[in-house]
Amino acid sequence: MRRQSIIGASLAVAVAMSLSACGGDSGGESNTVRVTLANHVWTENVKQALPAFEKETGLKVEITQLGEDQLSDQYNVKLNAGSSDIDVMMYRPLQEGKLFAKNKYLTDLTDQVAANKDWDFSDFQSGPAEATTYEGKPVGVPIITEQEVLYYRKDLLEKAGLSGPPKTLDELKAAATKIKEAEPGVAGFVARTGKSAAVTQFSSFLYSFGGDFVDSAGKATVNSDAAKQAYAYYGGLIKDTGPANVSTDMGWPEAMAIFTQGQAAFYTEANSLYKNATDPAKSKVSDQVGFAPFPAGPAGSKPYSIPSWALGINDNSENKANAWKFIEWATGKDQTLVQQKSGVPGARSSVWANPEGTSTFPKDMVAAIEASTQGGVGHDRPVVVKVPESREIVGQPIVDAITGKDAAASADTANTAFQKFLDDEAK
Questions:
Q1: How many CA atoms lie within 13 A of 267 on its CB side?
Q2: Which SUPFAM superfamilies did the record assign (predicted)?
Q3: Which of 37, 60, 82, 380 has the most crowded CB, counting CB atoms within 10 A?
Q4: 182 is in which domain, residue-wise?
Q5: What DSSP element (H or E) covers 204?
Q6: What is the pLDDT of residues 326-350, one digit of tens each?
Q7: How many other C-beta atoms are found inside a 10 Å radius of the C-beta of residue 355?
Q8: pLDDT of 167-219, one tens digit each?
Q9: At what angle do helices 320-330 and 41-57 cross, to 10 degrees?
Q10: Upper half-sphere CA count for residue 332 (Cβ side, 13 Å)
Q11: Domain CATH number, residue 339
Q12: Same domain for 139 and 155?
């Protein structure tokens, strides 16, 4: 309770500091801003800060808070119907962003982001900013970010005579192999294995081998030489150094459990989940966990660096000016700093450069994130309208490689299916 009150007080201070950037005439629009948000610690922090924001601006913020599935269902119904009773919407840029932008559910924010130099849109990291842009126009503002990093066991590395975490994928394979051979019952490497769930984490391997899901012309490339190498590497690493009788249906909870129970030396995963590994209440190896940048492949270290959530304005809203005031405040430098100190990784470069903004994160995690944002790729799955269907297609070669099937042949089959999917979507 004391920690919550401290965070609440800090948030209130941040509101007061940042409100000067939220001025402007509302143009006779409603003083009530209707905001739909997902269940997330970011949302809880914003709710604590709202009273001060409302007092200073004279606006009233009505929040509808929903779980991810409920949120998607509500958007599907209301946005398809052209409803105007949502002003601000929290959405997943890489899951539904292209669908929303293509269907013109999201307002073009070009004028808004350029109007306030102190708010400074250029301060947002390039990967997240790219993911919230459609056809060259900003349609959202990133609020929560993720990068893929390497989790590892310090004690197992020391026992194996390794001076530090692997810097390349070749070194990762060698280290994982060595530790598995030396430590009975301990996997060298673990990661997601489910056909759809693994796609996002596999993406960093794909990019680091020099591949991508599509080329610059929008054609499927999951059977390029680079992609075939990436599929074979990822699947082979799990097959050869992973847990015995490994399941091919693991998402992050299952893979994380193996790592936190002390049953794996290396694990690649989203940085946003790190507290599961460092919390003694959740992890048997909490005091031995280290973090490192994603290992470099033939094309270098190219992990994804994405916004998992963003804020946008419903294009049918009749209260856009006040909706922007809320977004401008909620994504400002002061508010982002307080959010990040409470454990929510933001998208502002200045906050990451501020020692106060990284004070609550492990030092090696900060270094890993900084490295990731420099060469990070702004998507972790195919950027399409029907994201779930695409993940099922491009994820099949991952499962096939893990089970010892021909990864190259599977990639060829997947590429044919994925190209048909892209062609159908373009009609």
A1: 37
A2: Periplasmic binding protein-like II (SSF53850)
A3: 380
A4: 147-211+223-303+392-405
A5: helix 197-208
A6: 999 999 999 999 999 998 999 999 9
A7: 7
A8: 999 999 999 999 999 999 999 999 999 999 999 999 999 999 999 999 999 99
A9: 120
A10: 24
A11: 3.40.190.10
A12: no
